[in-house]
Amino acid sequence: MGPDWYCDDVIPGNVRVEVLGRTANTLAFRPPIPGFGTDHVIVIPTRHVSSLLDLDDELAVELLAAVKKAAAHVIELHGGCQVLTTLGDEQHNKHLHWHVAAGAGVARFVAR
Ligand SMILES: [Zn+2]
């Protein structure tokens, strides 16, 4: 996995992924191996955007609609899901991506 796996491999189609949905500027897919959770969908803009902080308002609407659609699909299959994006030092791939994940391995809130 390169520094920008999405621009380098996923968007050009160099890696086989299960595409769940596509719009003019977004792609929702399952990666070959779930990064976490037992079901893991990733939603990305198909042009390079570094992170949520660099996302313009127009694309934000289209991207969030794609995230909603992916989340509804995962909820239908698993009863729930977790939706998150990472930023700064927590963001390992500097191409904005949303994780929609369900099942074992997702982060759990622990009441203290
Ligand atoms: Zn990129």
Report the average pLDDT across residues. Answer: 93
- Bound small molecules, deduplicated: zinc ion
Quote the distance from N terminus to C terminus: 37 Å
> What is the CATH C level class of the domain at 35-104, in words?
Alpha Beta
| Helix vs. strand class | alpha+beta
The stretches of 5 or more residues where confidence is low (pLDDT under 50) are: none
Query: What is the third-level CATH name, the topology of the domain at 35-104?
Result: HIT family, subunit A
CATH architecture of the domain at 35-104: 2-Layer Sandwich
SSE order = HEEEHEE
General form = globular
Number of helices: 2
Number of strands: 5
Spell out the key features of this protein.
112 residues, alpha+beta, HIT family, subunit A, 5 strands, 25% helix, 23% strand
Structure, briefly:
Residues 20-102 form the HIT domain. The chain has 112 residues and is an alpha+beta fold. Helix content is 25%, strand content 23%.
Structural summary, described in words:
- The protein is of the alpha+beta class and about 110 residues long.
- The chain has a domain at about 35-105: HIT-like (HIT family, subunit A, 2-Layer Sandwich), CATH 3.30.428.10.
- It contains two helices and five strands.
- The protein has helices at about 5-10, 55-80; strands spanning about 20, 25-30, 40-45, 80-85, 100.
- Strands 1-2-3-5-4 form a five-stranded antiparallel β-sheet, covered by helices on one side.
- Strand 2 and strand 3 form a beta hairpin.
- The protein is globular, with a radius of gyration of 14 Å.
- It starts with a helix and ends in a 10-residue tail after the last strand.
- Zinc ion binds next to helix 1.
